[in-house]
UniProtKB/TrEMBL annotation:
InterPro entries xref list: DUF3995
Source domain of life: Bacteria
Membrane-spanning segments: 6-31, 52-72, 84-99, 120-140
Annotated signal peptide: none
Keywords on record: Membrane, Transmembrane, Transmembrane helix
Protein name: DUF3995 domain-containing protein
The keyword Magnesium is assigned to this record: no
């Protein structure tokens, strides 16, 4: 069961990483609904390609950590570091789930933008799933 959960999580991370790489190389699909906006429609921030590339690399490393944690891949680190990594991934996505109390997360204040709608129905629940599932794997392994 742990292998299947790890594969599902790793697949999500890889797909998200590929999407971020698409944006790094100039792709525009989906970009308008993935950046928080204020009520006037202005972006809260404008991520550049270096930050977007860093996120893609992070997501790929999260996928590899998941696959190493269950033994599908052999990692370069001792298993205890992989365990720490799983807890860190869980924590990162829990923080994303909670959000900034204004534009992002379950407690966001602004809820009437395209991003806010997607955040409510897609991004925040996905963050909760990734937090809980990585946490469960970290405890079980």
């Amino acid at each position: 069961m742990e292998h299947l959960l790890s594969i599902v999580i790793a697949t999500i991370f890889i797909l998200l990483a590929l999407l971020h790489l698409f944006w790094v190389f100039g792709g525009q699909w989906g970009i308008n609904a993935t950046i928080p906006t204020a009520l006037n429609g202005r972006r809260v921030f404008n991520p550049g390609w270096p930050g977007t590339l860093l996120v893609a690399i992070g997501l790929l490393s999260f996928a590899l950590t998941n696959l190493c944690a269950v033994g599908i891949l052999k990692g370069p680190f001792d298993n205890k570091y992989t365990d720490y990594g799983m807890y860190m991934i869980s924590g990162i996505f829990f923080v994303r789930f909670v959000g900034d109390m204004k534009y992002v997360g379950v407690f966001k204040k602004y809820r009437k933008t395209v991003f806010a709608s997607r955040d409510t129905y897609i991004y925040t629940p996905l963050s909760l799933f990734l937090s809980i599932s990585n946490g469960i794997l970290a405890v079980l392994l």
